[in-house]
Design goal:
This protein is an alpha+beta fold. It has a single domain, classed as Orthogonal Bundle (Cytochrome p450). Helix content is 50%, strand content 7%. Helix 7 runs antiparallel to helix 8 and helix 8 packs antiparallel against helix 13. The chain binds protoporphyrin IX containing FE. Protoporphyrin IX containing FE (HEM) binds next to helix 13 and helix 18. Protoporphyrin IX containing FE binds next to helix 13 and helix 18. GO terms for molecular function: heme binding; iron ion binding; monooxygenase activity; oxidoreductase activity; oxidoreductase activity, acting on paired donors, with incorporation or reduction of molecular oxygen.
């Protein structure tokens, strides 16, 4: 009797539990959860938890707790952080289209003429066309090689300057010197002239450029919390941004006017402004290039091209002075190829294999863009079983990915040999090494950056022996970084150059 009552009851209860379980999972299936992440405060979310100079390190700590994909709330803007090669492939290759936007940030929008260029434009037809035009006409290998005489001339000048320091037993400030070299090369290829003052490494242009870089990465609270623009205004940020924009706008306009002057002496090689002005008159292009578009592209070249190359060469010299074994080996290879020549050209550099491995290893351990350049999702998508809403900011922590223990043996060590018998490269096919990003929005300046870096470093290492200033040991050289879009070495790298006796 009892069993005739109990049995259906137990059955009913079991069915009910199963039904509830099914409904719960159905909801999860239809609406997967957001990635896990640290709890934030109302309105500001996690904003108060971060310090921009060590953001990549703070995000690394969080990835240890929450995994290779986790979420953050930056004010009212959702964000995710990806920290493994596998997840990088998922977002930058399998879901590249969904993540090909860029977040709109006040400073970047203003200075990029409202995204009238490549780097900060939203993903749209204009971006597709301007990127295509620039890849074909500005960043192509043919154009890059047309600037080789400029590169050779400027690197030779730099070597001469260092020889001066060496003969007076002075110390060479490599941060200043390499930043000045990089901006001079970029100004000559882009604008057709140099803007550094002769004799002084820190010119007015250099100061202006520093301010441009600073404004590009300045934190505007209204980017994350609407209606707080008054705080940015009170802090004077709007005025500072407007001033910097006006100064650069005036500068670009002068450069354009100079190039349009019919009496201007025509250089042998066209600089980038020449090319862009020619394209402006080309009616067959799919977009009508305006002066603002041209100014936006010039801004890209200054912002994306100058700092990154300079910072990487400083990091390479930092890594070498801290690793005398590698310094010795790389110099032996370079000097074997260079012999008694006083200058290595780009063909000589192509014969170097250990040197190239050393550059890859520098990109691995010291990516100048530790978090790449933030992307933004254009639409909702599912990544790794998690729901990522539209308009979510994506950070890819390249610094952590480049130290992934499953991809790299002794990941913290500076060992160029790891690349000698390996096909792994930084061109975007290998997701464990992505200093230039990958996919639709990857860096179009890669060929130009690599050719400059190789030429500069090969000649610094060929012409001089490098020593620490008296009283310093290699452990005194730190690897702290400055906040910004590009991670510069915080404390200037100052070394003593000794001229090789037979040169
Ligand atoms: C060592 C040197 C350089 C490094 C490490 C570097 C790195 C990067 C990275 C990480 C991105 C973002 C990629 C992504 O979102 O997937 C990027 C984008 C970009 N870079 Fe570079 N870059 C370097 C040099 C240059 C140079 C020399 C130029 C131009 C003269 C340049 C122009 C650009 C532009 C225009 C973009 C935006 C691309 C887009 O949004 O479609 N970069 N770069």
């Amino acid at each position: 009797m009892l069993s005739t009552i109990l049995l259906p009851l137990v059955l009913c209860l079991t069915l009910l539990v199963l039904l509830l379980f099914f409904i719960r999972n159905l909801r999860t299936f239809k609406n997967p959860p957001l990635p896990p992440g640290p709890k934030g405060l109302p309105i500001i979310g996690n904003l108060h938890q971060f310090d921009s100079s060590i953001l990549y390190l703070q995000l690394w700590q969080l990835s240890k707790k929450y995994g290779p994909i986790f979420s953050l709330q930056l004010g009212l803007r959702p964000a995710i952080v990806v920290s493994s090669p596998k997840l990088a492939k998922e977002v930058l290759k399998n879901h590249d289209l969904e993540f090909s936007g860029r977040p709109k940030l006040l400073g970047q929008q203003k200075l990029s003429y409202n995204g009238s260029e490549i780097a900060f434009s939203p993903y749209n037809e204009y971006w597709r066309q301007i990127r295509k035009i620039c890849v074909v006409h500005i960043f192509s290998s043919k154009r890059v090689s047309s600037f080789s005489s400029i590169r050779n001339c400027e690197v030779k000048q730099m070597i001469k300057k260092i020889s001066g320091h060496a003969s007076s037993s002075g110390v060479t400030n490599l941060n200043e010197l390499l930043m000045s070299l990089s901006s001079t090369i970029m100004c000559r290829v882009a604008f057709g002239r140099r803007y550094e003052d002769e004799g002084s490494e820190k010119s007015r242009f250099h100061v202006l450029l520093n301010e441009l870089q600073a404004m590009m990465s300045t934190f505007f609270v209204s980017d994350y919390i609407p209606f707080t623009g008054w705080i940015d205004k009170l802090k004077g940020l709007h005025a500072r941004l407007e001033r910097n924009f006006k100064e650069f706008d005036k500068f670009y306009q002068e450069v354009i006017d100079e190039h349009m002057d019919p009496n201007r002496q025509q250089m042998e090689e066209h600089d980038m402004v020449d090319v862009l002005l020619q394209l402006k008159n080309d009616r067959s292009l799919s977009i009508d290039l305006t002066y603002d578009h041209i100014k936006g592209v010039l801004m890209d070249i200054l912002v994306a091209g100058t700092d990154t190359t300079a910072a990487t060469s400083v990091w390479a010299m930092t890594a070498l002075i801290k690793n005398p074994r590698v310094m010795k080996k790389v110099q032996e290879e370079i000097r074997n190829v260079g012999g008694t020549k006083d200058f290595l050209d780009e063909d000589d550099v192509q014969k170097l294999s250990y040197f190239k491995a050393m550059i890859k290893e520098t990109f691995r351990l010291y990516p100048p863009a530790t978090l790449l350049v933030p992307r933004e999702s254009n639409e909702e998508c599912i990544i790794h079983g998690y729901r990522i809403p539209a308009k979510t900011i994506l950070y890819v922590n390249a610094w952590v990915i480049h130290r992934d223990p499953e991809s790299w043996k002794n990941p913290q060590e500076f060992i160029p040999e790891r690349f000698l018998d390996s096909d792994v490269d930084f061109r975007g096919q290998d997701f464990q090494l992505i200093p230039f990003g990958t996919g639709r929005r990857s860096c179009p300046g890669l060929p130009m950056a690599v050719v400059i870096l190789e030429l500069v470093l090969a000649n610094l290492l060929h012409s001089f022996d490098w020593e620490l200033p008296q009283g310093m040991i290699k452990e005194d050289i730190d690897v702290q970084v400055l906040p910004g879009l590009t991670q510069h070495k915080k404390n200037d790298l100052c070394l003593c150059a000794k001229t090789r006796s037979h040169i």
